Amino acid sequence: VHGRTNEISSILKLGFYLFAEFLLTYKIIDETKLNNLTSNAYYTIDELVKQQSKQIEELDPSTMFFNAFEELLSTQAIYVDRIENRHQQVTFPPNNPRSELVGYYDIVKDCYYLFPQKIYCLMVKFYKDSNQTFPLNEKNLWKYLNEKGYLYRTDKSRYTVQRMIYGMQRTVIEIKLPKTKNEKCVF
């Protein structure tokens, strides 16, 4: 639940309680009606909190990133080369000729090396095509994913890392994707 959601819920409940007490004091409603109204109002507020929390979770930038990444991979709009040995190239071209290479998947480390600008642009385009806005710029996305424990960094001033892949030094973001929805991926 978002930090302020519980606070707002409590304020709404308090406001409704004070209003209901006012109605009872001036004999507009009786005790039974007060109890029914209060329990219905509290139930409704709690249900709205659940709905709001679900919407907030769906708008979480990391959730948006992982959902788009998964869908783009599944539909073969993008692909990653799978590597076991960083010096020997074994490409796995997609079935879709329009698919774009966005990085590499290291089977041994179970992580992705993604080209930061390319994957970010594709994420923004993915959401733009569905009439949504991706909420963060590129730098803030990597900062956010880092704070959530999904990025590996060697230098505190940079979100990218240098990796020797197929005999070439490449600038990538090293990212672990969660296996389940609530899993944290800390390196």
Number of strands: 6
Taken in chain order, the helices and strands follow as HHHEEEHHEEE
Oligomer: single chain
Structural class: alpha+beta
Approximate helicity band: 40-55%
Instruction: Report the end-to-end length measured between terminal Cα atoms.
Output: 26 Å
Globular, elongated, flat, extended or rod-shaped: what is the shape? elongated
Unreliable segments (pLDDT under 50, ≥5 consecutive)?
A: none
pLDDT averaged residue by residue: 87
Which sheet architecture does the biggest sheet show?
6 strands, mixed
Count of discrete alpha- or pi-helical segments spanning 4 or more residues: 5
- Per DSSP, what share of the residues sits in E-state strands of 2 or more residues? 15-25%
Rg over CA atoms, rounded to whole Å, is 24 Å
Secondary-structure map:
Elements: H1 3-25, H2 31-58, H3 61-74, E1 78-83, E2 100-106, E3 111-114, H4 116-129, H5 138-147, E4 151-152, E5 161-165, E6 168-175
Parallel strand pairs: 1-2
Antiparallel strand pairs: 2-3, 3-6, 4-6, 5-6
Helix pairs in contact: 1-2, 3-4
Note down, in words, how this protein is organized.
The protein is α+β, with helices and mostly antiparallel strands and 187 residues long. The chain has helices at 3-25, 31-58, 61-74, 116-129, 138-147, and strands at 78-83, 100-106, 111-114, 151-152, 161-165, 168-175. Strands 1, 2, 3, 4, 5 and 6 form a six-stranded mixed beta sheet that branches. The protein is elongated, with a radius of gyration of 24 Å.
